[in-house]
Amino acid sequence: MAAARGEFSSRFGFLMAASGSAVGLGNIWGFPTNTASNGGAAFLFTYLILAFALGYPALMAELIIGRHTRSNAVAALNSISTGRKSQILAMGIGLVGIVTVSLILSFYAIVSGWMMAFFLDPLARILGLTGFSEWLTTDTELRNAIFVVIFMVFTVLIITAGVKDGIEKWATRLMPSLIGILVLLILYVFTLEGAMDGLRAYLVPDFSRVTDPQLLINAMGQAFFSLSLGVGTMLVYGSYISKDENLPVVGALVALLDVGIAVLAGLLILPAMYVALASGVEIFDDTGGLIAGPGLIVSVLPALFNNMGAIGILVALAFFSLMTIASLTSSISMLEVPVAYSVENRGMPRPKAAIIIGIIITFTSLLIVFNFDPLFDWVVNFTTERSQPLLSLFICVFAAWIWRRNEILDEIRHGSPEAEHGLFWKIWPFYVKFICPIAILAVYFQ
Ligand code: TRP
After folding, report:
1. Which atom, in ligand 1's list, is nearest to the CA of 383?
2. Which residue segments constitute the domains of the chain, with CATH numbers given?
């Protein structure tokens, strides 16, 4: 049967791993552009409320179930089931979660591959390899395919090494570097002409937008994607937390780090876009909105870096290393979901599971690369707009309606003996029972 389970060796290790999962392209790319195109600080404000009022309770549901059951999502939901029907539901949610997270990884790897290519580009230019630099920055199927494979190899290697020597070790190295690079880049961009206009676009609220249903949908989708919810990622990371940890506190720290880094990323991206504007780069699309899609990262910002002269090469290097790090600490958390299941439920050795599943996901990714036009958008929308919110909803239903309440309290009491009298226990059960499901459904049917 399964080998001994891994465990994070410290609170810091868990925080870096879980916030590494949460902080990804969704924060550095998705959040700032969503903010800019949804009424600036009005979106920021709505997002902050939703992240703490809905995202945090849903995150806690996953962490508590994970740590209590000490197993992957399928086995975990199964073991808190109370009858035949809920067991079937558990199986369904767990398996759909595994398929969903694998599909998320298959499109995430493509975008992460672009980030790696753009990271190598400044190095190629320093070495005078103009032809290679041209190849790296031109969108071709061949380049995309090669970088998908390279990115997936890194992801598989880290997962093969396990929880402590793989996930924790790399997250504790990479996350502090990410924060350092982000802060340095912000400080530098603030010194450039146009940055303050970007800051205004980011922070001046247009409150007439707060009641716009589209803004609410975007803010909630952003919150669930950013906190990596629904597909069992946080559940499985929760299963590696020590019993001595105070769960409501570490969960809150993860949510704070995730939101904090998203807000910081906005201080970089929006000012950088307006600096680009000041130096003659087009930053608005045909409809007058800010360019937010792939164009932002692979054309607007590189054009800005090119205009900066010699220092632009360093800035590009810093920026794309930031993006690559953010991608990698997220992608490992995605691959861990199917790998933990195969190791624990199917008795596979970890390296074998990581390699086989890694190959399957790489092939799916390549299928998308070579049929980019219909497939990419379809997979992104299906997984993030359809599947993920519904799965989150079901996990909340499991935690609040199916699982026995006193077992939940017992679990939280590990590491937080006074939990019963605390604020968390007064509010959270009500939230996961009623508010989260209703809010998710309401937004879903918009
Ligand atoms: N949260 C990450 C981001 O913001 C992406 C991510 C990691 C994710 N694991 C996930 C998204 C699981 C959904 C499900 O980019």
Report:
1. 13
2. 2-444 (1.20.1740.10)
